[in-house]
Amino acid sequence: MKLQRTTLILLLLALGLGGFVYFYEIRGATQRQEAEVREQQIFAFTQEQVQTLNIQTQGQTLNFERENGQWVMTSPQKTPASNASISYLLDLLVQGRSDRTIQVPANQLVDYGLAEPQATVTVTLNNQQTHQLNLGNADFSGNSLYAQADPGNNPSGNVDLLLVSADFQNAVNRDLAEWRIENDTPDADNPTPPTPTPASPSPSP
User: Fold this and answer.
1) What's this model's pTM, rounded to 2 decimal places?
2) Coil, strand or helix at 139
3) Burial code of 21-38, b = ≥16 C-beta within 10 A, e = fewer?
């Protein structure tokens, strides 16, 4: 009788241990992996949710609005917009991932080109939410840009910086003519980005 009770206790312990391993190692690993993906994603909206798009570079300011499913440039000109150029940028915003997040003092943003960003992209969604991405200098590898996603007003303390694809630089630095519809190509789903402009590397954190 005592042996049966001991066996039952051992069986219950084994089942409990097996349940712990399953929930922590298997399900827990899946949840941790999903959390890491969420942390790496820059934004969580879809292209279809974007209603307006504003692009500010050091050379020009552009405004676009979706009208009846088609993109229209509202300023500096009122004209149908290039869906290829806009889709290329929106795809980077929606699908983009950050390789790394770093924290730096707010008074050091100038060292990363973010005190006066080379470009600021602002989108308004169909639920009236707005999101902003500031693009700064390239890192030493030249493959990434320092960036701020939805920066807040934090004049003191640390701020979070992202390292995002240098393709963002190609996506925003276009001539005005490239944003108009007459520059759409038959291969609009795979637009060719403009020749990248070399950027001065910034100090690595």
Assistant:
1) 0.70
2) coil
3) eeeeeeeeeeeeeeeeee
